[in-house]
Amino acid sequence: xxxxxxxxxxxxVLLTNLVAQTNExxxxxxxxxxxxxxxxxxxxxxxTSRSGTKYIPVVFHIVYRTDEQNVSEAQIQSQLDALNNxxxxxxxxxxxxxxxxxxxxxNLDIHFYLAETDESGRPTNGITRTKTDIRxxxxxxxxxxxxxxxxxxxxxxxxxxxxxxxxxxxxxELLGFSSFPGANAFDEMGVVVNYASFGTIAxxxxxxxxxxxxxxxxxxxxxxxxxxxxxxxxxCFYDDNIDDTPNQxxxxxxxxxxxxxxxxxxxxxxxxxxxxxxxxxxxFTKGQKEVMLNTLEFYYPSLPTEQPDSVTPNDNFNILxxxxxxxxxxxxxxxxxxxxxxxxxxxxxxxxxxxxxNAHSNIIDLANLSxxxxxxxxxxxQTRKVTKFVKL
Length: 392
Ligand SMILES: [Zn+2]
Fold this sequence. Notes:
Blueprint: H1 2-13, E1 19-22, H2 33-44, E2 54-64, H3 73-86, H4 99-102, E3 110-114, E4 127-131, E5 141-142, E6 145-146, E7 165-170, E8 174-178, E9 191-194, H5 214-223, H6 286-299, H7 314-317, E10 324-326, E11 329-330, E12 333-337, E13 342-348, E14 353-359, E15 363-365, E16 372-380, E17 383-391
Parallel strand pairs: 2-3, 2-4, 2-7, 7-9, 11-17
Antiparallel strand pairs: 1-8, 5-6, 8-9, 10-12, 12-15, 13-14, 13-16, 16-17
Zinc ion binds at residues 19, 21, 27, 218, 222, 228.
């Protein structure tokens, strides 16, 4: 088995493709079909030795040209929350999944967390910030090197990809793009996301429909070995070679009506690996999960997946899902049903934290707040719940 993988790695290293999701809906992919098929089939026979919940440390490299691009910690946290929801079947838009597909919906059981120590072992918040003068730095190369991923090209060097999942957040004409297993230089392994389609709490998103935090989920699908759901080309002849994703011949650029079909079966338009807008993508399949976990096992064997002391288990980190915050249009009081001892933050639409307080009641008095749109972030231990509301 190892020989097969060495062969595949060698093959992929020869390629320089990046897998991308663009605001123009063009996503180039140059992987050879027969080799990819071998990859999928051989991986399908393997069993991951790292069972149970996996905890992956993430470093976010914020490379900004303007203040707006220098996204806030609250925005970063909202992205991390969305990611953890998506990878644990906790995303709120799961209701769009048809009953027939619930049986094959996968819980990846992966928990991403902000790195707590840097490469030298020093404490860190898992965020780097780098000022650049280069417009759309995410789109440029120098002698084949991706500028955003290198200090000397005006970007930011990766932290050791054997130990961290690197995510660069920057200005780019794409929504995001990812390295593909074995296909990119070691120091360029990781995901790039447009600051304007990153996180869930800004209201000034450049790209309507991509503010649900799922762009990073889609790109991590590529990072973990997934193709788009239609496979290599948008034709029925091509497939992603994963058994439980239906064959599909087109990319959906808008939320579809009804149950569209292009290759004799109902298209899974809400799969995270389609192009559908954020509110209309909601799941990975069990077949995709198998590929992703095996990719983790064989391509990123050194990436830590152990639970760090400070991170609570998956089972607990979403206890706030049981909590309801209402109303959406607030006169004076916001009510928090299901809990009455928690910390909360009040955040404006720019991501600025206006207030942090410990509450011992389920009523939050907002009488003095000026009119506008805000976010309430509830915190219990490592758990967070973000709710948007309008103060009248
Ligand atoms: Zn893509």
